[in-house]
Amino acid sequence: MQGAARLAGMLRDAGGAVVLTGAGISTESGLPDFRSPTGIWATVDPMEYASLSAFRRDPERVWSFYRLRVELLAAARPNRAHLALEKLERRGLVRAVVTQNIDLLHGRAGSRDVVEVHGSIRTSSCRRCARSYRLEDVLERLARSTGAPRCDACDTVLKPDVVFFEEQLPAAAIERAFELAREAPLLLVVGSSLEVYPVAGLPDETLAAGGQLAIVNLGATRYDRAAALVLDAPAGDVLESVLEAL
Q1: Contact 27/105 with Cβ under 8 angstroms?
Q2: Residues 127-148: pLDDT tens digits?
Q3: Are residues 111 and 203 in the same domain?
Q4: Which DSSP string corresponds to 103-137?
Q5: Is residue 9 domain-shared with residue 23, that is, in the same domain?
Q6: What is the pLDDT of residue 37?
Q7: Which residues of 200-228 are buried (b: 16+ CB within 10 A; e: fewer)?
Q8: Does residue 103 sit in the same domain as residue 206?
Q9: Within this chain, do residues 91 and 202 fall inside the same structural domain, yes or no?
Q10: Which of 74, 106, 145, 197 has its CA 20 to 30 A from that of 173?
């Protein structure tokens, strides 16, 4: 693939790139993205189904959306792009993966250093008594009832431990993401439109510190002109070609 050999050379020269991934890396696993014309937010208002105020107002309604999403995410499997990044990490060419995704697919692919800046579906928590429930427990509750999953201790509706709109990002994760970006000789963006802040600001940190930026994404981003390399192609195709070129 055109450009893959150049990206392979950039990764080799960097000797420890940081990767930032968004929803576009998981579309090959059958998961829809958010902001494309066919993405989730094209038909669903995020402030009605994915905001903290909506959850506080009507958690049952929010779960009417999240029920199907959690079940879909739980059944998804890593695709070629996730598996390629794990191989690059094992070769020492990727230092860490910072992901905006909540789908756990990087971990399932075997990547060891994954920073989940938007949380994950790994657990759900009770906002009243702080009791935590694993994904398996939540799926069991969803299978038993058509309503929202509730806490055993106080019967409060559980909240997925993902970052909703109007909610703060986990401090430790976002601090580490910015630290990694500042230290990265190369920041490789895969499958992100770079529109959601503060994570979309990570390229600025790398560039300001003298590092390079490479972008693999279907569609343009606001950072394309600042990038040393832009590949408008499916992530799986590009990353598999990178491995072949190394």
Answers
A1: no
A2: 999 999 999 999 999 999 888 9
A3: yes
A4: S-HHHHHT-S-EEETTEEEEEEEETTT--EEEHHH
A5: yes
A6: 61
A7: bebbbbbbeeebbbbbbbeeebebeeebe
A8: yes
A9: yes
A10: 74
Of 88-97, 129-138, 140-149, 237-246, minimum mean pLDDT range? 140-149
For residue 216, give the CATH number of its domain: 3.40.50.1220
**Per-residue confidence (pLDDT) for residue 48, from 0 to 100:** 83
- Residues 157, 106 share a domain: no
Q: Above 70 in pLDDT, residue 22?
A: yes
Rounded CA-CA distance 137/217 in Å is 35
Instruction: Tell me the CATH number at 45.
Output: 3.30.1600.10
Q: Could you tell me if 173 and 221 lie in one domain?
A: yes
User: What is the arithmetic mean of pLDDT over 65-77?
Assistant: 90
Residue matched to tokens 């994404």: 217
Number of H helices, E strands in the chain: 10, 9
Give the integer Cα–Cα distance in Å for 26 and 5.
23
Confidence of residue 12 (pLDDT cuts 50, 70, 90): very high
Residues 71 and 174 in one domain: no
Clarify whether residues 147 and 220 are in a common domain.
no
4: tokens are 């893959």
What SS3 string covers 138-170?
Answer: HHHHHHHCCCCCECCCCCCEEEEEECCECCCCC
CB 70 within 8 Å of CB 162: no
Which residues are catalytically annotated? 118
Using one digit for the tens of pLDDT, what is the confidence trace for 178-226? 999 999 999 999 999 999 899 999 999 999 999 999 999 999 999 999 9
The pTM for the full model equals 0.93
Domain hosting 152: range is: 32-75+120-162
